[in-house]
Amino acid sequence: MREVVLVFDVEVVVDVRHLDNRHLLAVRHAIESLKAIDVTFVDGTLVHDPGVTVVATAARDIAMDTGFEIQDGSLILPWAIERVAMKLESSGARDYLITGGGHVLSSGTPTTNDARWRVGIPDAVHGGLVTGVDVNDHAVSTAIGNADELAQVTVTGPSLVYAAAYAIAALYLGIRGINWVKSQPMYGAHTVTKDGERLWTPEFDRVKVPTVTTAW
Question: How far apart are CA 203 and CA 113, in angstroms?
Fold first, then answer.
């Protein structure tokens, strides 16, 4: 089953594999729940909602560790993707890939012959793909922007909200930010500098595809 849902004006693609017919209706309801997500902001700050406390927690953790402050709004889409993933799990889905807005959340396997989902990471500066990852039960998030040292940062790890937060922080903190992500257990980072150099941490190397071509 493959569905495309518009969330906060971003196309989110939900690809569910190996689905038992008994769980089909419940999975459809889980995907439909993406359309019902509604949050409120005041002056760019998320109004407290018990369901999105992880967003505020992630932003606070990074501010304490690095001094960099992340706006809650930049983490709402990753949170929404994680929420629908939890609903998919409770509906009986085990093998799925959710993508949208530079965020990826994977679980299980795409086919009986492939142990991991293969995901290409776009090159925000030159087009095409800058690298790729083979993942299962992994989150992947890419941040791009007009930072001083880095053109883009991709972070992998167990939580999509935290991967997104780490990517945003590392982008604007520069090389210091990449080293900081490196110190976070189970999280890896890949970056492209303003000069076009590609750098990545040992944890990212565990999921990185050795050779990337535009044929993907």
Answer: 25
**205-214 pLDDT, tens per residue?**
999 998 654 3
13 Cβ neighbours under 8 A, 6+ residues apart: 2, 3, 4, 97, 98, 99, 100
At 175, is the secondary structure helix, strand, or coil? helix
Q: What is the DSSP string of 32-82?
A: HGGGG----EETTEEPP-GGGHHHHHHHHHHHHHHSPPPPGGGGHHHHHHH
Instruction: Give the C-alpha distances (Å, rounded to integers) separating 125 from 163, 209, 216.
Output: 21, 20, 18
CA dihedral 49→54→58→60, nearest 10 degrees, is: 40
CB 188 within 8 A of CB 157: yes
Q: In the numeric block, which tokens belong to residue 167?
A: 């990517």
> What pLDDT, in 10s, does the model give residues 150-182?
999 999 999 999 999 999 999 999 999 999 999
209 — phi, psi (to 5°)?
Answer: -75, 130
Whole-number Cα distances in Å, 95 to 11, 35, 51, 135, 187: 20, 21, 24, 12, 22
Compute the radius of gyration of the chain from its Cα atoms: 17
- For CA atoms 82, 120, 97, 8, the dihedral sign is positive
Is 72:56 a contact under the CB 8 Å cutoff?
A: yes
